[in-house]
Amino acid sequence: MGPTRGLDSTGAPLRADGDSPPPARAVGLLRAGSAALVLAVAVPAQLAAGPEAGAAWRPAAALVLAVVQAAVLWWAVRRPGAVLAASALLGAAMWLLFPALSLTGALLGAQLALCVLSALRPVRTSRWGLLGMLALAPLAFVGGGTLSLVTQVLAATLAWTAGQWRRAQQQRLAAETRRAVAEERARIAREVHDVVAHTVSVMVIQAGAAEDVFDADPEQARRALRAIDDAGRSALGELRLLLRAEAGEEGGAGDGGRRPPRGLGDLAELAAGARAAGLAVELREEGRGPALPAAVGLAGYRIVQEALTNTLRHAGASRVRVSVCRDEESVRIEVSDNGRPGPRSWRSGGAGRGLAGMRERAELLGGTLAAGPGADGGFEVRAVLPIRYAS
Q1: 3-state secondary structure the chain
Q2: Which residues, in sequence order, are bridge partners of residue 370?
Q3: What region, left, alpha or beta, does residue 287 occupy, with left being phi > 0 and alpha being psi -120 to 50 degrees?
Q4: Whole-angstrom distance between the N-terminal and C-terminal Cα of the chain?
Q5: 46-95 confidence digits (pLDDT tens)
Q6: 148 C-beta neighbours (distance < 10 Å), count
Q7: Cα angle vertex 156, ends 152, 161, to 5°?
Q8: Could you tell me if 351 and 341 are in contact, meaning their C-beta atoms sit under 8 angstroms apart?
Q9: Which residues, at least 6 apart from 145, have a Cβ–Cβ distance to it below 8 Å?
Q10: Interior/surface letters 275-301, b for 16+ CB within 10 angstroms, e for the rest
Q11: Which residues are CB-contacts of 363 (< 8 A; sequence separation ≥ 6)?
Q12: Closest Cα to residue 298, out of 368, 372, 238?
């Protein structure tokens, strides 16, 4: 069995090659519909022909073969190749016993099995079934001339083509499912990274500050410890919200679970946390416009959060300026610091989630993000987040 890449509509795993089993309801409808169709074609034709079909036992035998052919279709989904072979033999025998029924009609069960085979098995397998059905076409010419030959070829080809169309649908659904799962995993990874990385960075800096002044200034050490406590509680709250959102749950009564997602309105709180870590933060917000979509607000908040986190971790900066300017069309964000010039590990794509995650957030909204050395030294992050794409 190949590796799975998602779930189908019933919760069953989708195989990487698209050969996932159809839903149980669809299998039941296929079985019932196929059997009814075979009997609906064969039985009326035999009843209408009556004794003129030849010896009295032949119509009865052909009728039995039609019933057996309909019954064999019960296993068409599990064993389409075997069912195709059995249906073809039964159909050919029924046609020989009852020539009044065209070969195409007698092989209707085989054509249905070929369609299922084409839909559920790779082309390299189903094409042999198609060739086998086409090999029976000369019998149609013998029994009914050119028209019967053309009808048999078209019927077999259309059955195989219909199966291929269904198979392509299933493969497209599997690919979309895999892509959706990958995108969701990437989104969760970004959220967890942004929450944890920022909080841990602040906690590490505060812990170091508390250790430095523990004996000389106990009160300052206590403030640093309280800041660590606040940062940890905030991170736990955000992670709890994230997990509840992924599980489709709402916050319980009396706790912080009903808090809306983070947005640009929370930048003041974010700046306060960075100030507590010893970074001088200048926050400037300009412009007005319609209420921001939640996706834009969250993306802007996370971009600023990540920029501040990396300034704390890598820049050796003492001052950072955050500018947010918005209008009816977009939100423009700039974060610049006075840290050390030169390359930073978070600036490159690398294996980390820093700049790559920020850029992904902007691009998902149809926006852009650029980062590089500032004109006056330090480092700058500039992002433009269109509002209309998320509205």
Answers
A1: CCCEEEECCCCCEEECCCCCCCCHHHHHHHHHHHHHHHHHHHHHHHHHHHHHHCCCHHHHHHHHHHHHHHHHHHHCCCCHHHHHHHHHHHHHHHHHHCCCCCHHHHCHHHHHHHHHHHHHCCHHHHHHHHHHHHHCHHHHHHHHHHHHHHHHHHHHHHHHHHHHHHHHHHHHHHHHHHHHHHHHHHHHHHHHHHHHHHHHHHHHHHHHHHHHHCCCCHHHHHHHHHHHHHHHHHHHHHHHHHHHHHHCCCCCCCCHHHCCCCCHHHHHHHHHHHHHCCCEEEEEEECCCCCCCHHHHHHHHHHHHHHHHHHHHHHCCCEEEEEEEECCCEEEEEEEECCCCCCCCCCCCCCCCHHHHHHHHHHHCCCEEEEEECCCCCEEEEEEEECHHHC
A2: 382
A3: left
A4: 43
A5: 555 555 545 566 667 777 777 788 788 788 888 888 888 888 888 888 78
A6: 18
A7: 145
A8: no
A9: none
A10: ebbebebebeeeeeeeebbebbbbbbb
A11: 369
A12: 238
- Block residue for tokens 């939640």: 294
Q: Are strands 280-286 and 319-326 parallel, antiparallel or unpaired?
A: parallel
Instruction: Give which of 242, 317, 332 is closest to 251, Cα–Cα.
Output: 242
What average pLDDT score do residues 170-191 get? 78
Q: State the Cα–Cα distance between residues 205 and 318, nearest whole angstrom.
A: 13
Burial class (CB in 10 A: 0-12, 13-18, 19+), 31: middle
Q: Is 330 left (phi over 0), alpha (psi -120 to 50) or beta?
A: beta
Q: Name the one residue in this structure whose structure tokens are 């019954």.
A: 71
φ/ψ (deg, to 5) at 27: -65, -45
Q: To the nearest whole number, what is the mean pLDDT of the chain?
A: 75
Neighbours of 211 (CB within 10 A): 11
Q: Do the beta carbons of residue 87 and residue 114 sit within 8 Å?
A: no
Closest listed residue to residue 23, CA positions, set 1, 34, 7, 8: 8
Model confidence over 345-389: pLDDT tens digits? 444 443 345 677 788 888 888 889 988 887 777 888 999 998 876
Number of Cβ within a 10 Å radius of residue 192: 15
Residues 269 and 230: their CA atoms lie apart, in Å, by: 11
Cα 99 to Cα 183: distance, rounded to the nearest angstrom: 59
